[in-house]
Design a protein that fits this description.
alpha+beta, 4 strands
Length: 412
């Protein structure tokens, strides 16, 4: 019998070893995902341009887990479920904990099914309340929100979200109206008990009388008063006025008037100019020579290079991003600068400018740019400007600015 039991014990040991290793790996994955997600929220704009160069070692991401962390976080959060992706950290972590410490491992299916249900509900809810920030809900939450809104409307979707939340509370927390009433009664009892304790702590005032010092009235005088009420002894009371407080010396305030300044004769300035003449501040600098432009470094002919392919790509991405939010464009124009290109757009009638202004981060994300600037509206024009940094900016030297005719012929 002992020989037959040994192989079973060996299998149980191996199974336990596998559970410990798998549990540690799942817990580590959850921890690394948490670090990666938090770092992605802080650096997603800067790391967006590094997602396409995963195999290039020279490109470095600002994510704490470098390019792999930025890519995985972008997949789970932007292309996935947004902030609800943090629930994956909990699911991996609790699964690893249960396997590592063997704490009821039979509940894995229930944990993951409820976790995924919460994940989808949270993603759709974030997409419902923050439509103009798709990174909060991810593409899945945004698209599900748009799909459901197209069929049942925003009010219907809100009702569905509230009903699902009620299901979570009733099924998971086993909440009922009766339990809620019992909880309210417990809260009231605790408040009443605290009030009673405070009342008991209040010190009682002593109402003891000194019986020794109290004099008993004479019975004879009482009978005389009853028979002859005019024989009541009269007592005179003198009301003393309150003692006057000591008169303290009152503060004395010294009043001082400002002496008027002597007026200067208005003709005195003219007399001084006639005697001494005007002062020329350039007399001491008559031999001064301005520095020559040769002191500055010459970078050669650094003209603006036009990249037609880059302009067309940026134009298509801007139009596509605005169309995703149902913003139509009537006209678009590009003004190329040395470091920045200004795209002037004319929105269709009925579109509010604030709606385009709020899409600054989304447009920057679609253009893979570190940062853009939206000028809404451009002063003196009926257009909206979107400044996008050029991929290959030209050098603007100090010499080229100073030697320009506008600078040399300026009146200032």
């Amino acid at each position: 019998m002992s020989k037959k039991q040994k192989p079973k014990e060996i299998d149980q040991k191996k199974k336990r070893q596998q559970e410990v290793i798998l549990g540690g790996a799942l817990f580590l994955i959850g921890l690394l995902l948490l670090i990666s997600f938090i770092s992605y929220l802080l650096n997603w704009r800067a790391d967006f341009s590094t997602l396409g160069s995963l195999t290039d070692r020279s490109v470095v991401s600002k994510n704490l887990l470098n390019k792999l962390g930025a890519y995985v976080s972008h997949f789970f959060m932007y292309k996935g479920v947004g902030l609800a992706a943090f629930l994956f950290c909990y699911l991996f972590g609790i699964s690893g904990y249960k396997l590592f410490f063997r704490a009821r491992p039979e509940g894995f299916l229930s944990i993951w099914s409820w976790g995924l249900a919460h994940l989808l509900w949270l993603s759709v809810s974030l997409g419902y309340f923050w439509v103009e920030s798709p990174i909060l809900s991810g593409i899945i939450g945004y698209e599900m929100n748009a799909f459901l809104t197209a069929y049942i409307g925003r009010i219907g979707l809100l009702g569905v979200l509230i009903f699902i939340l009620l299901c979570f509370i009733v099924i998971e927390l086993e909440w009922t109206p009766e339990r809620f009433q019992l909880w309210l009664e417990k809260v009231r009892k605790q408040k009443n008990a605290q009030q009673d304790e405070q009342i008991e702590k209040v010190p009682e005032t002593s109402l003891d009388f000194d019986l020794k010092n109290t004099k008993t009235p004479d019975t004879k005088t009482q009978d005389e008063i009853i028979q002859n009420p005019t024989s009541i002894p009269k007592k005179s009371f003198t009301i003393q006025p309150p003692k006057e407080e000591s008169n303290e010396p009152s503060l004395t305030m010294e009043i001082k008037t400002i002496e008027e300044e002597d007026t200067v004769d208005a003709k005195l300035a003219k007399k001084l100019v006639e005697k001494q003449g005007f002062f020329d501040p350039t007399l001491e600098l008559s031999n001064y020579r301005r520095p020559n432009l040769d002191l500055l470094k010459d970078y050669g002919d650094s003209g603006i290079t036009i990249n037609q392919e880059e302009l067309e790509i940026n134009k298509n991405k801007i139009v596509e991003t605005l169309n995703n939010y149902k913003i139509g464009i009537a006209n678009i124009k590009a003004t190329i600068g040395p470091t920045v290109t200004l795209y002037e757009i004319v929105p269709e009638a009925g579109i509010r400018i604030s709606k385009i202004k709020n899409l600054e981060d989304d447009i920057a994300l679609s253009l893979s740019a570190l940062g853009i600037r939206i000028i809404a509206p451009i002063p003196g024009k009926g257009t909206i400007g979107i400044e996008v940094p050029n991929q290959k900016p030209s050098t603007v030297s100090m010499r080229s600015v100073i030697s320009a005719s506008k600078f040399q012929n300026a009146e200032m």
